Amino acid sequence: MPAVRVELSPGRTREQKAQFVQQVTKIASEVLRCPAGSVEVVFIEIPPYDWARGGEFLAPAPGE
To answer: Average pLDDT of 23-38?
Structure first.
């Protein structure tokens, strides 16, 4: 059972996620030669104040 973990900032619509899930499932199933029903996709939404790049947070924490 392949599992795909997607970490991203919040803001994508359910429709965007659904389209992503469909495409990733199709590709994973074809490339890994497994049933589409065995492919799992998990979205982990991380707010920009908990995400840093180059030593800097992308946004200030709430209340800062």
So the answer is: 98
